[in-house]
Amino acid sequence: MDRAVEGEVVRLLHRDAGRRELEALRDRLARLPDGEDKARALETLSMGLTVKDRLEQHQQRERGLMAVIETAQDLTRIVDIDEVLRLIVRRARALLGCDVGYLSVYDPERRDFYVRATDGAFSERFCRIRVGLDTGVCGYVARHRSPYSSSDYSGDGRFHHSRFIDDAMRGEHIASILGVPLLSADEVSGVLFVGDRYVRAYTAWEISILSTLGAQASVAIGNARLFEQARDALARAGATNELLSRQTADTRAAAEAHEQLTALVARGGDLPDVCAMLARRLGGRVAVCDEGGREIAAANGERGVEEPVEEGRWIEDAAYAALAESRRTGRSVAYRKSRTVCAVVGGEGPLGGLVLQTAEPLGEVAARIFERGAMVTGVVLLLQAQRTLSLVSDAPAVLHGLVHGPGGRSERFAQQAEKYGVDIHRPMRLLVVRAGRDGCAYLCRQLRDRLGASGALFDDVGDSLVVLANAARMEQARAAVQACLRRHRGAFSGVVSGVVDHPNGLSASFERAGRCLDLLDALGRQGELFDESRLALYVPLFNRADAAAIDGFFTATLGRLYAGAAAHEARRTVLAGTLLAYLDCGYNAAEAARSLSLHINTLRQRLEAIDGLLEGWRDAGRALEIHVALRLWRLRDPLRFAAPDEPAAAPGQRRQP
């Protein structure tokens, strides 16, 4: 029997039978009768069981070694840190034969541990566990930097329990647990756990192999952090290189634009050339406007230079307001999503501006190119003004000498004036426009473009534009001034003097024109060019009079026809116009009725109504005074007070930009 038992034991060991089969053999032998054969058989079987245990230990160590080797290979082969950690947890669970495995990683920002990899867990709540340094098995292992095992998790009082964590562990039915620290230098980077849903004790070898896997997990986490730092550093380096490349390209683009603009000016380029180059470079429509807001040159990036419009094209009010802001700041100003302006300044004041319309807002480099384009535009405008002034360099001196010079000394200007098409030995006329200092400077530049250096002498004198031309050419000069005034945004008033036969009379004519303008200011009349003859009667009577004095004259002369609570109602104006027509017609009622297209009886009824408002108007001594007052009233209020020989025109009525 002894040899038979030995043979059976060897056969079982040879085919790697389980321990249960060997123990079944021992049960059979135990039922045999006692004797030496039975004792020897049991001893042989005991030795077989010892060999079996040693073989299982060797196999277990071999599996542990293979797990460690495979994990080490994973550290070098797998880039995804989460995948490496999941494999470590899965191997730890399989190697120790546990129900659950998981790994918690330390979060330095929140100063706690969170579950990053699990295997065998089915509760979502379990995967959301976060543990502080002073809580649970995780906190205990992290504080003591050593492994920890418990065969009764819920009843273990060696660590501080948390209700949330205990509920999550009960949800997974975990009874036994083993945790080892993940040490990195002097820090704990995490904790590797295995757990079982039954009461179990963990051997020293199991703790050792789990610690080895934990060390590899620590290496994986450290490598991942180093990899993330290297990746972030590489991304920052890439972003820095991209920024440097972009800045280099932007600098090159700005330098090229500046070089092209400089070369354009150097070879005598004009405004359309500047607009065309900027339009191509910036990809949009670029226009140059003068200080009044009228476009004088424009180009499109696709269609090139645009043909100029005869009367000019006015920029929108928003662009005009943005130009004022640009003059204040010295930089370009975006006034809409895709529209930008930049003031052009040079000499003693503003010269105009650049207006850009693009599909997208300008970037920083494009804005700088646009601003440099405005500087070049200013240079071109100054060069054009210099060329124009070189043609008329002595015109201001000649004009000032003729208008303000002492009598008898004008002959010395005769030859110079003739160069500009003005013969001072023939009848002349003056045109004086009051539009403010900036407005007159603008009008003077516009007039140079229209008249050039022939046909008239003109210049801005104080707050007025003065034009001197022979009487035969004054209508041409007047038309040119009116064309410029139609482009002028500000208020103005102007007077054309009577004929001056000798240059010695120009000074007096200029003074009379100034008094006429003062009267127009007192009357509030703007926006027209008046002939001096229309104002000659009133200037001596109302010299130095202001608006209040003139209003007092109307009240004193016309009484209730002008003054009172209902003074300016339509009925009063109609009666005043009827009376003026009656006086203009020399008290001829029939002729006055025809001039007003009225029936004679209607005219007489109106005159009777006037008798009730203006007593004594029929007296011969008052007729002239009343007649003058009515004519002056009509001159002040042409819209409300129209006469048959003067069609109503709105004060300041002109082409609006």
UniProtKB/TrEMBL annotation:
GAF domain location: 80-231
Pfam entry (one): GGDEF_2
Domain of life according to the entry: Bacteria
InterPro entries registered for this protein in UniProt: CdaR-like_regulators, CdaR_GGDEF, GAF, GAF-like_dom_sf, PucR_C-HTH_dom, PucR_C-HTH_sf
UniProt family annotation: Belongs to the CdaR family.
Name the UniProt record assigns to this protein: GAF domain-containing protein
Species of the source: Castellaniella daejeonensis
